[in-house]
């Protein structure tokens, strides 16, 4: 039971700013700036990843050779035993991602990329529906741009990947592999925005990726969609920031079956360049919080820094009001860690690259033709109905091996067809989310309309069931607290603590230092009634949610 | 009539390897290696672009301010007067792209990006239909990888963008911003491919982009789709390479209305790592050739260099057979330069982000409501029918200005609706490809089924008409030659020369030196009959096409 493949890059995607900012957090510190867009942070002590090349071909070779002789689930560490090892085993065995040759980078393999494509497809439609256009910004920016930003936020530059040699020559001005887009966005906005008639200017890009550099030792690259908008008024920008977090909420609930809690970040956790940061927070299987998407109201902070002006209706020059918002491939990790179990991945049907796998079963050669014919026609029926279906007709593996393999890959439904099923014109259908015999139903008719309706109903049922299960898990692990003592108990039990909060930034940092938990958000949904701050005993307007996080 | 915005980056996308390799071409020279995938080359002397930042905000500001007071077409240099200036004016005025802050890079603006998205959508479907999966490879590779490749091809490294500083520290090993993917692809293939059962391994990615570095002075970045496959046999790889060039041919004819000539590259023009390079060659409006897409049969050259092995059915270890193929954003430039005219852009309906623009016309306020109501309902009808339609209801501009603007943007059809049209329940429809009154039809009924059918027919007609026109232009500019003298005359007249060819590489290079023309391809479609080499008088098996190229 060896978890032989370790993917530091993916794990890093789930570290939080907290670790790096245990002490001395100030609103304008570079650490907080790094949080811009989505608060992707990486825990330095987890792995010694860095800007260096690594060779692991032979290790991977061993892994694969071992894998060939095993039932796939054998190589997955039980989730309850070691959550992190389980997570990395799932990624390796389900072939979601692999190491890149540069330590800290990852190759996203077809199965993982297909999940990302499902996310893109949904969001791309939503972004366009809400008036955003896609465009492309180049990824090299002049070093002077960062210095401009650094005049606001000291110490940003130590994090960057710098191109110093181009065309065989030392460059006169170093280039930066753009870590975030504010500088170039504002550079272009100053040229494109002239009058209020040019506003709002809204763009998004669901197909681009970013190089994200990490302080000190590490670079990490991931894919994301990133949106930037400019508006004539604060109110419009605020509405935009809220609209986009709403889209993320709907995406999380409806597509990913992840019952995120949405809210506003505390002042300490808000990006220094933003007036407000909205977030969706998800509870992973180990009950740690994952910040799964953010939307920022940037106010005029960037437009003042870069001189992004427009002429209003009265002929006055004004700074534009901006927003930005992003979801990245870390969301794929969130799906794994929300729904997965000891068997492996469990995918919500609406995001699954394969929704139904058909496993034909035969012993004798004379059975094979009839079984495969029936299996193919079942496949055709489902495909025509718009269901993503795969027929695993290889004769390299036993049906039992295939059952395990596709369960490990998280395919929501399995259809089994054997000689007796062919005779009776029916199939056996098993649900991934209900293990063993309980999830298995015999004698479903192959008649197209019956089968199609049955499969669609089951997929809907699984989608709802995953959400309900995650919701129940989440709610049973959130404790209402009214004192710091109660908060400490809840956090020490690995739970989320929800309680009224109106204390100082210093108190917030003290909680982090003493418990490891941070304010994940002030949730939009607030309980009724009088609230007394759990820390100070003063009146409070809102409850906050505290939790340890990735 | 000042073409005030110049986009070196886009123009560079249309330079050819020829310029850099006028003398001393050897099959294994680094210059030819750079041709790998798609032969994107950049003419150094065109612009003094380099790895440096530039500031042009004020220039652009002037341009925009000037633009506001003009009819859009006024700022476009006539195509016949200066093709290059015309091209750059169209890109600037149709808002397809803009300068990036680093010289030689470009921002692809929403209108240009939407065309690229249409290309992606089509190809993504075709790639998946033919069994390819998308995946993502990280863009930093260790410098040692390039050295490995450089052992085959000297001098590759002078072209690269090198990251030498990461996280504020000098890196132990420099990282390369990956210019092509062969090294990392083979690095991963050696880990993923074990037996013949793992083959074919086929991936494509229509959503990624690449940094392409240019020798000496320049970096250029563009978006592309890139495919890589590995196979068990040469025959399979050859079929794959041909299948993919076939997809590119169909794409060019059916979507882009560009009548490319497809064929095989000469030995001199074939990428040194490839056994065969297939290409599609398009004739631009100035009659220069544009290499618009390539597909390579790589044989075992890369698998031998990287040790990419598999175990065949007999238990023998064998090197895999590989292909690669790509189309990039240069194709967008090809569309502009094939169909555009003095008015500006002209887009084939199947790729146009906006297929129909509706311009409402009113003078008095009491007319406005009725006209806009009718225009909105026409828009709804067409949108429901799946047509990409835009209603330009702004009251900032006159209808005449809008006519010019949308013609300049290349929208295939314009619908005009005025008060009298509202009364008569009809609209006026103008074709972009037939200027003036000739292209204008009055009294088309607003009745949904009539209007929808009429618009769809016209769009189909325009699509065919653009292809026919380009085909006629192409064919009237290809001259059959039977001697070198005839070839020289044809080339000096700016035409393409087609003639039998079985001469040496040295002769081919001599033609290039003396005429500036290269062999674009040995076309798949060959004339019947006996062929005598135009250069040597010896028997020839094929005709070749010679032309000057971008």
UniProtKB/TrEMBL annotation, chains A, B:
Cellular component per GO, a single term: chloroplast stroma
Coiled coil: none
Domain Aminoacyl-transfer RNA synthetases class-II family profile as annotated: residue spans: 103-348
CDD domains: ProRS_anticodon_zinc (cd00862), ProRS_core_arch_euk (cd00778)
Pfam families: HGTP_anticodon, ProRS-C_1, tRNA-synt_2b
EC number of the protein: 6.1.1.15
GO biological process: prolyl-tRNA aminoacylation
KW Ligase (keyword) present: yes
Superkingdom of the source species: Eukaryota
Catalyses which reaction(s): tRNA(Pro) + L-proline + ATP = L-prolyl-tRNA(Pro) + AMP + diphosphate
GO molecular function, one term: ATP binding
UniProt keyword annotations, A-Z: Aminoacyl-tRNA synthetase, ATP-binding, Ligase, Nucleotide-binding
Enzyme class: ligase
Matching PANTHER family: PROLINE--TRNA LIGASE, CHLOROPLASTIC_MITOCHONDRIAL, PROLYL-TRNA SYNTHETASE
Protein name as catalogued: proline--tRNA ligase
The organism of origin for this protein: Senna tora
